[in-house]
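Entry:
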Amino acid sequence: MLLTSPILKSPKWLYTKHLQTIVPNLYRKVEGVVYKRERIETWDDDFLDLDWSKTGSNKLIIISHGFEGSSDRVYARGLTKILNANGFDVCVWNFRGCSGEDNRQFFGYHSGKTDDLDWVVQHITKQHQYDEYYLIGISMGGNMTMKYLGEEKWNSTKDIISAVTVSVPIHYETSFQHLCKGWNQIYERRFTKQVKEKVLKKQPRFPDAMNYKHIMEAKNLWEFTERCTVPMHGFKNIEDYNKQVQASTYIKSLKTPTLLINADNDPLLTKECYPTELAKKSKFFHLEIPIGGGHVGFCEDIKAEHNWLEKRVVNYFLKGA
């Protein structure tokens, strides 16, 4: 279903898509969220850290953060706070190596590593008693969420009532190259610096696992992925990686009601990330394209307790539309 396109009333001083992206994510503050951490062991001798914020609800929302994010990101805290206030418990799970402590294995996470999300959902549904389960995925976490729900191989998806995904580069074949061009290099260079630092931390423990010198010489995130992520996780090449991990491949197979919210001016997305025709024909895939908002920005008032996105997400889970 293709939904109407709401118009965000962003402050006049946030007059470009990059300002609408950068300012809210860097300068917005969310106070009063206190997590309780749970560490779970994985099937491959590693661990995942789950951060909980409970109110005693019988409804749980599981949040997957974005690339190089964590439960501490302002969007995770903002969503957690408003969801708690509206009767939901929240669990934000941290990808491998994103919880503030390096993971045990030499490999980490990637955009399509849905076995980790399945493991989290399995653990929660077995160990914690809730009547209703929902998912939220932000940016890369949204891509992972949609892929997980559309792969048709995880039994755990049957427990998920619905999902919301936000600012998702669902078509890696075009969006990945787009990230490395023009003004988008502002974000790409920061990402590349972060992932290189993480890989270097592994060198003392796994000196022969990778060609660290070759990886450190990568000029951008594309080259880093080609030299590190692809061989680390057993992909044939970067083209194989892009095709296998991108959520666009799996949208037609969705059987869980899923809302994708991609702002019309998101600087990181290509036109292929707005599958309007597919949404018109799908019973389960809903697409909403707000006018304005940038990438995970959605700011109408920088001083407001909650932004447009957080209020929209609550409305969707409470009313189903």
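The domain at 17-171+250-319 is CATH 3.40.50.1820 (Rossmann fold).
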